[in-house]
Fold each of these.
Amino acid sequence: MTVLQEPRTESHARRYGAGFLVKLALMAVVDAFGVYVLWAAWVAESWIILGAMLAMLVVVNWVYFSRRAVPLKYVVPGLVFLFTFQIFTIGYTGWVAFTNYGDGHNSTKEDAVTALLAQNERRVEGSPALPLTVVSDGDELGFVVVQPDGTTAAGDAEQPLEPVEATVADGTVTAVDGWEVLDRQQIIARQGEVTDLRVPVSDDPNNGSVRTQDARTGYVYLPTLVYDDGADTMTDTVTGTVYTPNDDGQFEAADGSTLDVGWRVFVGLDNFTTAFSDSRYAGPFFQIVAWTFVFAFASVATTFLLGMFLATVFNSPIRGRKIYRTLLILPYAIPGFVAPLLWSGLLNRSFGFVNQVLLGGAAVPWLTDPWLAKLSIIGVNLWLGFPYMFLICTGALQSLPSDVLEAAKIDGAGRLRTWSSVTMPLLLVSTTPLLISSFAFNFNNFALVYMLTGGGPRFEDASVPLGHTDILITMVYSVAGLDGTAPKNFGLASALSIVIFVIIATISAIAFKRTRSLEEIN
Amino acid sequence: MTTTSIAPAPPTAPTSPPRRRSTGRWFAENGWRHLVGVVFVVYAVFPIVYILSASLSEGGTLTGSNQLFDTISTANYAGLADTAFWSWVVNSVQVAVATAVGTVLMGAAAAYAFSRFRFTGRRAGLTTLLIIQMFPQMLAFVAIFLLLISLGEVVPALGLNSKVALICVYLGGALGVNTFLMYGFFNTIPRELDEAAKIDGATHAQTYWTIILRLVTPILAVVALLSIIATFGEFVIARVLLQSESNWTLAVGLYSWVSSLLEANWGLFAAGAVISTVPILALFLFLQKYIVGGLTAGSVKG
């Protein structure tokens, strides 16, 4: 381990030992990956990713090849992940909360224009029929057409038509460089894809695309909308309506009608206003906030009381104490996702064990009645959570100073008095930080609620998919529309996340003051 | 310690303790504790017994599982082979192990730096970590989802529906959650050891890899374990990110069985639940002492 060596003045990292070679090899891998990402970001024109990656590469290389940044050598790997996947995402949540990101507002204005033009294409009357051959490039389908002037051109959904060398027989293409011609069988197998495919005529979306219905003849489809770059307007060529961009990130006509694809814009505090005062959201929102607090508080209170009771009971030496303790903490060792699922079966209204066996065939709606569902959630959480409290209370009881207890005894305090005036306060002092973090954890106990009741039963009056047992974090999930039951609304979901952040921050600030954990840092 | 600790005479029996205590007396003293113990052990253990029985029942329906140990058959376990269950097991193990290894490596290195070096920004860094610790990563799952959409357009391996991306996301939480736990433990290792090594000519890297890391093995084991348990049970991020069935983890997969057609899949779910519980339960029971120590040092089940 400690090889005796002459102390040297130069840095040891400069010696070309095994450690240096390992570092060099690792850095080579990291840099290779970094360069690959840079190139890919360049191709995909993702300038933010390109910039971020470049900055990271520079920092990482400087840290590991400089002699000055020794502490950073140890912190940087963790920091890279921390910044990308935690700090950045928190910041990004803040940004999205002030936009209307979501269904209908998914991307930039440029993308919205392209999508609008592509979606509103019609076959042009009297346009020439182009002899067409369906080809494929591995997975991607493409078209090869013979144009009116006799030249051939190929392209696919991404790549606009480009002139290619092809063998033409009987007016249609039979072989083409770089593509494989599909036979009839293959075309029938992928019929849907073929009729859905649109191959842009050129890079300019105003020029339309080639489409086919029968896989033999293609027609040029032109957008019925025309985008005027200079005036920044959309004009419908059929009706002549002119649409201009509005503040909500949509094209709007004079009569107030809008085109269905919009883009992301800043909407200021609109999302927060929606949560707090919109008729569809505000009612459920306040109910959910209240229930979230009740749930988190009740969870901590019930689990702590039961855990403390059991810890006190088993704090005196009785036979089999170890076995009792081991069996009592078993629920804690069950993976977090098994327990709620298991209980959702036990509490099932028609077939569950609780109703069928314990209650002799009653049909108690444990998970479908608003109040019983809330009770069930707290009950299941009690089963899940009391072992943890039992563990920490046992630990705290064992480390109570015995002289205080003796003093109480000498002063003539009875068992109950000792417990309420000495044991309990001391126990609370040592467990309060854990109770606060337990509160914060339950405040966001997504898996329990989502798996046990899915937030249900639904609010009857709400048009949004929210229910009586939803807590804030499951509301975020539903509003975000990630499971497909509601339209996606990332903006509002992020705004709700921010509300949770603020609540947690307040709780944490109180926790900080209480525990003065900061003092431990020296 | 003072030597004045009074003789530990039983406080309840100051006058001539009887040889045989009456049953009532025994009950008041200790017996009721056994009663409480038995009642709550039944409460704690019953659901576990139930799921074991359901996994062994022949029918595989929810109703059929209500007669405990009525029939014993391994049909449900055999039935798992026809589903994607085992690939979920593999996914879960891959993700949990990779995350645990990464978490331990990065967390230990950061704890070493904070514990052994004095540099500008150290205090601020520790405070920031303490604050970040308060905000669980899952709060930002919408932003994580959107971030991975953008990343996936550049590097498909880091996009949605990729286990590598999921591991990276979990590693994002590695520093915030575990550095403090390790930092405290690193501080208990005497600095004289480092100094001796330095005088002997060891570089900081040699000191770290060959001396410190060996002395802090217990906390590394605890962190690895807590990380495995947390990752194994993590649901919301995995559910949001992993989209195709073959990439799901156990948490996502088993949820899908129960949420759709509860009645029909119950036997399969029970068998799957038992299989996914056994390794965690075993780890937990064997390493109970360490986990309890780690918990009381300030972490919560996450």
Amino acid sequence: METILDIAGLTKVYPGGLKALDGVDLQIRRGEIFALLGPNGAGKTTLIGAVCGIVRVTGGSIHAFGHDLSHHWRDARRRIGLVPQELGFDMFDTVERQVAYSRGLFGCAPDPARIEEVLRSLSLWDKRKEQIRALSGGMKRRVLIAKALSHDPELLFLDEPTAGVDVELRRDMWRQIDRLRDQGVTVILTTHYIEEAQEMADRVGVIDKGRLLLVDDKDAIMARLGRTEARFRLAVPLADVPDSLCAYPLHLEDDGMTLAYRGGDGAGKGKAEIAAIAQALAKADVAYVALDQKESSLEDIFVGLVEEGAAA
Amino acid sequence: MIGWRSTYAIYRNELSRFMRTVFGSLVSPVLTTSLYFIVFGAAIGGRMSDVGGVDYGAFIVPGLLMLTLLSESTSNASFGIYMPRFTGAIYELLSAPVGVGETLLGFVGAAATKSLILASVILLTATLFVDYSIAHPFYALVFIVLVSASFSLLGFILGIWAEGFEKLQMVPMLILTPLTFLGGTFYSIDMLSEPWRTIALFNPIVYLVNGLRWTFYGQADVSIGVSLGLTLAFLATCIAIIAWIFRSGWRLRS
């Protein structure tokens, strides 16, 4: 698939000596939704800022649409949109004019029909004549998105799009991103909500302390690192795992009171195995009084990776 | 290469910001200037003799115009670029396909346009109080445009340098206004005795006020060539500083 953004050896050291980015290599494919996952201060915003021209990089290179950004930044930036984390606009201006201004700023000819389309898609059309300061927090955030979409970017950065917004708006934002995917827009979003990455992304990158720890397809990560756990609480303690169940990754806990399973592949294998184990237990006349089952989420994987990274 | 659409977008956005506050932006300088005309022109001017054959009330018109142009150009442009830095809206400008050319033409062009509107309003106001004439209207226009542009550039630099509203006001209040008052706005420096006359010649504002006065009455304390030359040199210096700011990203890019 075509690479739309190619980052190589990107390093950023702030004047204070803080190393925000430490040799980041990352390729983004056209049309994908990429989630950059990491704790606060991991370097997510710095990475976005480096591509969008807000942060001056210390080393490394960035190619967007096949052009070196340090030379052909004008052409590249015209095709890139940015929704920042913080609200930042002229609060006293009207919604409509601010969005039209953004379009012009990015070198596009005025197009009231397109502006209307963008405003309608974000439910801002009814508010178009209002001053931005009169809008609710969620609406203000939508204005930021409208501004970023006003020049029809091919590559869109969303920096923590759902930080501090309520559940409803977050769902709404996910629908927006889905719509962008349908339109073929490449989206790079940063988040520290794992749920969001799991819900939205095609691929996930985990970043911590300025280093990319892992980049892979979301499904592949789940398959590689995803696990299903089950705990059968037994009526009578067992001394050993029954022979008929030797094929499964089982072990006994709590002095034989609990039969624990840990395995699977993050897809469906774990659940199927647990069902088979339940049937085998019934056949072997082993009674159990309770059954807990849990899928390890991207969150567990993420926490594990960050802890590993910290230990390394 | 200049992105004209981007430039126009910045220019229009700045002017629309001006139009939102047009009443306050125009009323305050017009009121101040009117007070000067009433106090210095009518009340005191009546007891003053002509200055170099020009009625005192008419004599102070170019100086007062310069006083307003300098302070308004500087503060308009400095607020124009400082506000996005303050609100965070600067991110958009930095991520947009605009460079130093678009930014300067947009912000400084808008600030200079405001100054020109203001200059027209003040000259109209002046006709209410005094009789004056403009000997060289073309040069007057050129000079007003040059001064507006130069001091809008200065304001732009201040707006990038300032880290708070207090600093934003410091240079206009503490340097520009005193220098303008001492720069022959209300008097000809030929009226001064030595060494004050020589000292006054080190005040760059003297050349601006006298340059504008020459375009009005065809005579001034210093030659028009020197005035024009100094204004152009100042303009070039400001552009050079701003080009450096953009290349280095100073106070703009982290």
